[in-house]
Here is the input.
Amino acid sequence: MSSVYSKEKTDTNLRAEYQKFIGKKMLFLISLILSIIILAGYAATRGSADISVVDVYTTIIAKFLPGHFETTWFSDTIVWGLRLHRILLAIVGGIGLAIAGAVMQGILKNPLASPFTLGIASAAGFGAALAIVLGAGFVGGEYLIIFNAFIFTLLASLSVYGLAKYKGITPETMILAGIAIMYLFSAMTSFLQYIGQAEQVQEVVFWMMGSLGRSSWDKVWVVTAVIAACFPYLLLKSWDINALGAGDETAKSLGVDVEKTRVICMVLVSLITASVICFTGTIGFIGLVAPHITRMVIGGDHRFLLPASALVGGLLLLAADTVARTIMAPVILPVGIMTSFLGVPFFVYLFMRRKKQFW
Here is the structure.
């Protein structure tokens, strides 16, 4: 009788501990959502036109509840016409890059894996440079640079997969293939800059710094649609990604199709990355920093790590863009510069804190 009672008490304690464990993660997610909402309201007040946070939220709510809230033409034009689509592109762009980084780190079990260390961003930069310097691409008109960056991002992903497939798909071969692709496209981009005219080179450099200055509602919807289409599958595969973290042999013993999971996840995160950087240019460190920050707070369970990393990425990119718009106002700095300034100190801290352990 006492053993049964002891077992029931142990089960109750375990359930209580698990609920506390889950509650901590949910609290972190809720706090991130609230932080994004608050920062978005503040970011919408920054600029030459002076409007308050109350005006911003009133203008947004009035769009959906016009009979209950009233706004002015001035506030409506500033918020909906000029600022809100940039803020939302920062949020969804940060979400996409953070998801890509978290998944890549998980399936490759490498703390330095990201769309940029695997050559995907370098390929996008080459596609943009090809359009700017030579005017060559897959389509014409105003979408030349965007489509070039998108196509070359996907080509880089296929190249990484092809090289890894040739030698056998393992985390090590994919990382090495990505580094080779990164140097190849970086060299070709440097060559185009060398032969280009001064104005063309300046535009290439500005694009590669990353900027949200060319945001629009159409771009926000495109990025959101791609993330909404890809993310559910990645979240569904979170258990498989957890298993991959224990090693390929362990994952296989648990019934995970290692090669298929790794390839499909790589394709989806490449698609997400392409949809973001073809509109924003190369924005570094978000895909690296956001998953590490999240992992340090709530651990490495990808069921929670993926959505939390996404929110941390959106918050970080929005914060970086807000600083970039205000620190030297009226001059607006490229957001890629600010993310690098934020990312480098974090990694110095990460190295000092973790020493030899990253996971």
